[in-house]
Specification:
Elements lengths: L1 H47 L8 H22 L5 E3 L16 E3 L3 H8 L1
Parallel strand pairs: 1-2
């Protein structure tokens, strides 16, 4: 019986050490993924929100539409459900957030006509 307890205790210690090591590995990987997710999100938003006059509203709309699945995956990795928000045309009175917590949504016809006027 004593031999059984010794083996059990050794296995328990080994298991606890292995779990601790796995936890540290997962924590490191989570930090790496969070950094990558943040970088990718920032780069994609910079592409969509560019102030270049050569990129029309139609192109921005197309980019936002094509990148929505990417943003959904990135926010799923973070564990936060995505929230929609209207895209804003750059100009006076429009501030650019450093790292907004939203998914770009498509511009409605009403918003497009209002912005053209």
């Amino acid at each position: 019986m004593e031999n059984y307890r010794t083996t059990y205790n050794n296995n328990t210690i080994s298991t606890n050490e292995a779990l601790k090591h796995l936890g540290e590995m997962f924590k490191t990987e989570k930090l790496n993924i969070e950094q990558i997710r943040t970088d990718v999100t920032s780069l994609l938003l910079d592409i969509i929100e560019t102030k270049d006059s050569m990129i029309s509203i139609t192109v921005r709309k197309h980019l936002a539409e094509r990148l929505n699945p990417v943003f959904a995956i990135l926010y799923h990795l973070e564990g936060v459900s995505p929230q929609s928000s209207d895209q804003k045309q750059g100009g006076e009175g429009v501030s650019k957030a450093e790292h907004p917590k939203f998914l770009p949504s498509l511009l409605s016809r009403k918003n497009l006509t209002a912005r053209k006027n």
